[in-house]
Structure formats: structure tokens, C-alpha cells
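Hey, sorry to bother you again with one of my protein questions. I've been staring at a protein lately and its backbone has me curious. I owe you a coffee for this, so here goes:
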Amino acid sequence: MPPAVIHLDLSEIVATPVRTGIQRVVREAIRHWSGPAQLRPCCVDAAGRLLSLPDAVLDILCANDDAGTAESREAERQALRSLMVTAKPLESREVRRLLNLELFFGAARAEAHLRFAAAGVRVLWYLHDFLPFLRPDLFPSGTTKHCMHFLRGLRSASRLAFVSEQTRNDYVTRVARRRHLVPLGPVIGLGADGLGLERQNFSPDRRDFVSIGTIESRKNTISLLRAFELLWERGRNARLIVGGRLSPDATDSLAFFKKYAGDPRLVVLEEPSDEMVRQVLRGARALVMPSGAEGFGLPPYESVHAGIPAVASVHLPSVAAMPEGVLLLDRMDPISIADRAPAPADLDGVRPQPWRLGAGTLRRN
């Protein structure tokens, strides 16, 4: 085998391809991979075998989502399933380096990485966050228990890289705690140009506030919704556009959507395509991200890079990388958001200017 090959474990995304969070990062990493090592796709099956996937898997995952229809996404799932049928088992002697960019919940994958590491394979992991372990209060009951396989599998890694300095510090001080501590790799922050939105010009005529991201309890979506309900009760008719994948655990947000169904002040876009996201951002006065706990916090980062002001928690790691253009809040509760986020006097002074970034979602700090 040529030495310049890295096997990329895509177990989660080929089994359940979506276009949010970590999976967006995985897709952009593949799309902008510059080498010199060549990526070879692989996955772990239920029996714990590492399977070699056809290279066509990478082409499918790199395709854009401008259509974003149920039919196009189902076609992607079916195409990946058909290629998985042709997957062939890999022996440790066939693998020199094994790269993981995903979070996972299964024991089989953890054991596979540990087995290959014991056979001398260099196992490389890119870590996004440890929120299921460090902030179990944000997740449904039992989530942390199912994530313990991930921590066990982490012991296989001979080199680590991190999405943010916060994640790196969490690993050193709260996860590893000097046990199983391997040589630490770099913080490789996320780029802000993955959405492909052209540069925007701020205008006070823009009245829409936009929130993009998975709608789930831990993202604090309900605080944003209740903040705008307060504004409407105060006589402000600012329109809120919420777009993302709907999580079944977001029962309070789903009830809110039902309450305001048909109200023109609230627009809900379930799993919007990339083009639809670009369209709503072209009319946005500001993007608002209500989450206060993230490994990075990409939406406000992308928004500000495109010239759209953002409102975000001061606790997001991404805000440290934004030179300007973001209104930071200490608290992301309904009253704090309602009192500050949509105030024209605040946002009129938040005029993002472009700054230089590397190409693609992943960039090296």
C-alpha cells in the first residue's frame, strides 16, 4: 500500500446522512481535502469489522444540497446503501492511518479502533466537544451512558486535533486528566465560507431575524422563541425565521410552532436546503444563535463572515475568532434576548467587515 493513504472512518454519515453539525464539517473536510495523503473511505459494521468503501462514497458526500428536497436526500441515502453492500473487510496490515472526524455511540466502532491501534495502526481523531459528558443536563436522560463507548474508543488515538481551544482544554483537564494523555495535535478551527453565501451589505431595511441549526432542547431554541413572543406582546412585529432539523425531544419548541402556526411573524423551515438558507440570510437583519454551550458555534461565525450581524452567547468558542460584527450576551434567556437582540440601536453599530480565512470549513490556526 502506498504510504500516503489515510483511511477515513465514515460510519455515522454513511448510515445516517444528514447535513447538520458535525456532518457538515465531515462533508466540507472531504470536499476541501488537499492531501498529500489520499483519503480512502471506510466504515465499521455491526460486527466490528472495518470495511473498505468505494471511492464513489466521497463523491456522493461532496455533492451540494442546493435542491434539498426529500427526494434528493432519499436518493443520497439509497446511493450510499447500495455502495455499502459492496464494502470489503480490511485487515490491519492494509491500514497505516485511520482517521475519525465523527462522534459516535456504538461499542463496535470503539473496539475496532482499539483493535487496529493495538496492531500498530496510527489512529487519528478530530474532537468537536465533550458536551454529552460534561453537560449532561443539556441532553435527554441516558445520553451520557450511550456515549461512554466514545470515550473508550478515544484511548485508541495516537494523535488528536481539536475544533477549539475550549475543547482542547476540556480534554486535558476534565476528560483525560493526565490518564491516557497522548501527544496533542493542533486546534484546527472551522472556516466560515462553507455555506457559499456572497458578501452581504447591511441595511436598516432588513427586518428578519434568522436562526439556523438543529431545533432541540440543548440548543436553547425555546428561549429564542419566547423572546420573540415577548417582543410581539410589546407591539414589535419583527419576523423570526427558524430553520433546521427538528429533534423529537424539542417538545416545547414544537408546541410553540403549533401555537403560532400561520402567524406571518414566525417562519419555520424544516431541514432547509443550502440555497434556502442563503435566501433567508440575504434578507436577514441579524442571525441569532441562542445556544450557550457548543464546541465551536458555527452559525454566527458564518453569518458575520458574510457581512450579517450576529447575536450570540459570550461563551461560544467561535466568538473569540470574530474581530467584530457580533453582539454578545452574557445570558441567553428570553428576557435578555428580547431586551437586546432586536434593538436597532444596538445592531446599527454592528457592521461586520470581511477578514481572511482559509478555504473550506476546516482551516488550520
Observations:
- The domain at 5-187 is CATH 3.40.50 (Rossmann fold).
- The chain has two domains: 5-187, 208-347.
